[in-house]
Structure formats: structure tokens, C-alpha cells
Amino acid sequence: MGADPRTRLRENATEVTATLVTGIWLAAMFTGQGWWLAALLFGYIVVVPMVALLFGDEDDVREWWTEDEIDPETLAEAEAEESSATDALERLRDRYAAGELTDEQFERKLDRLLETESLEDADRWRRERRNERESARDRDLEYER
User: Where are the domains of the chain?
Assistant: First the structure.
């Protein structure tokens, strides 16, 4: 026996909402209402994506929230980056467990790893370190004068 209507409505909330939005703007358009275009735009830009986010399954969320924002290549790069960060953490833990790193070295490297989780973070970290080195060099040159 199938699920009750309330369960089916919840499972298909995104599709039901899209159908209602379509019905409303089509009815408005065919009856000569001037607001039909606003209903269409608001329905598909705001209402349906929000319902997908709140009540939809993973496919609904992916369809309405990431399809236009993240291309598959970017998504694959992000997944590979996450995997490499996990691998780096595992290698760090293994080195610590094998006694290759002191507590202080492990904590310092762990902090650095966590500061540079994404490519943007790593680039920012690298620029900050370069700026710190340049500032220290400039101070040393001024001190020598």
C-alpha cells in the first residue's frame, strides 16, 4: 500500500510547488492579468528554490542550488582538494604516531594545515608569510642603517 497523501506531498514538495507556480502564472496570463510575469519570475527564482532547499531531497537541492553556481569541474576540484587535505592530515598523524614529530612540531604543522584548508586559504597564508618576511627584512635593513 502507498504512503498517505501528507507523506507523498512532503516527498514531492518541490514538484508540487513548481506545478502550482506554473498553474498560477498561466492562469494569470490567460485571464489577462498584468502580474503574470512577476508571478512566474518570483515563483521560479524564489519560491521553488526555497521549497527545494527546505523540503527537497539531495537531487532537488543540487538541481536548484548548485547547477548554475558550480560547474562539475569545479565540484571535482573541490572534492579532490578535500581528499588531499584529508590525506595530508593522515600523513601528519602517522608521522606523529611514529615519533618523527615532537608535540610542538605536530601542533605547529596541524595549525598550518588547518589554516590552509582551501587553495584560497593556502594562497593567503603564503602571501602573509611573504609579507612577514619582507617586513622583517625591511626592519633589519633600517636597523643596520
Answer: 5-66, 72-144
